[in-house]
Amino acid sequence: MIRVAARQRLGGFALDVAFEGPPDGVTVLFGPSGAGKSATLAVVAGIARAADALVVVGERVLTDTGARVFVLPERRRIGVVHQDARLFPHLSVARNLRYGWRRTTGERRIGWDEAIEVLAIGHLLDRSPRDLSGGERQRVAIGRALLSQPDLLLLDEPVSALDAGRRAEVLRFVAALKQRFGLPMLYVTHSEDEARLLGDHLVRIEDGRVVGQGSPAAMLPVRQVVGEAVGPGMVRVGEAVIAVPGVDAPSGAVVRVSW
Fold first, then answer.
1. Strands (DSSP E) along the chain, which ranges?
2. For the chain, which terminal residue's Cβ has fewer other Cβ atoms within 10 angstroms, N or C?
3. Which contacts of 172-175 are long-range, i.e. CB under 8 A and separated by 24 or more positions?
4. How far apart are the two ends of the chain, measured CA to CA in Å?
5. Counts of helices then strands in the chain (DSSP H, E)
């Protein structure tokens, strides 16, 4: 189980969040830009010290301000993947991966070959980060984080800077990690599609506060797909037939209607 609670003032912004996540699934922190999602990850990673905070991963207490417990970031056994891959440009892909591999001093639960296989990056090992596509760089960044043998993986909008094709590619690999390793993850996004695809538990954050949490199906609006036109200005949505005169949208477009 992951337990997080944090209260912190950042200038005029107040962060006040509390939630729990599953021990072997993806907890999605969902909300608009500036809501406090990345600030929450910084507290979990130990990069930021909140005035009042509790961070527990499994049986390890990483932060407890009441008990004056604070584990240094490099000792938290947490892997972090940012929006930009942040690979070392002067190192090959293999040497970037070995940086993560050498960070661990305990048991290696995730094998070198296993991580490379799941992320399909074996053919990239001798290449330089500057010769990789955006999607390839993110896969290598995920691999480096995995090979550090984390107890928790943090992904801060890891596909938001990619085009649609690369985004779908990386998301497939993240989903594969979830199935293969059962590693708990905190995944930050403002995309409903990503939250539905990956999430086991969703925490909705707005203006620095948790405004709801539950399954993605329960927390996100239900999408209905228009199946067919049944007459001029008339469409079938699920079991209902509704009038939508004046809609000018191409076939397959997503439109929001109310009645």
1. 2-10, 13-21, 26-30, 52-57, 60-64, 69-70, 78-81, 152-156, 185-189, 201-206, 209-214, 226-231, 234-237, 240-243
2. C
3. 173/118, 173/119, 173/120, 173/139, 173/142, 174/142, 174/198
4. 42
5. 7, 14
DSSP string, 29-80: EE--TTSSHHHHHHHHHTSS--SEEEEEETTEEEEEGGGTEE--GGGS-EEE
> Are 6 and 17 in contact, with CB atoms under 8 Å apart?
yes
Token pair for 18: 């509390």
Quick: pLDDT tens for 135-180.
999 999 999 999 999 999 999 999 988 888 889 989 999 999 888 8
Residue with tokens 């990345």: 38
More confident residue, 252 or 213: 213
- Fold annotation for 2-219: Rossmann fold (3.40.50)
- For 171-211, the pLDDT digits (tens) are 999 999 888 888 999 999 999 999 999 999 999 999 999 99
Residue 10 φ then ψ, to 5°: -120, 90
Domain-by-domain residue ranges, the chain?
Answer: 2-219, 224-259
Q: Which of 184, 183, 204 minimizes the C-alpha distance to 192?
A: 204
* pLDDT(127) > 80: yes
pLDDT confidence of residue 223: 60
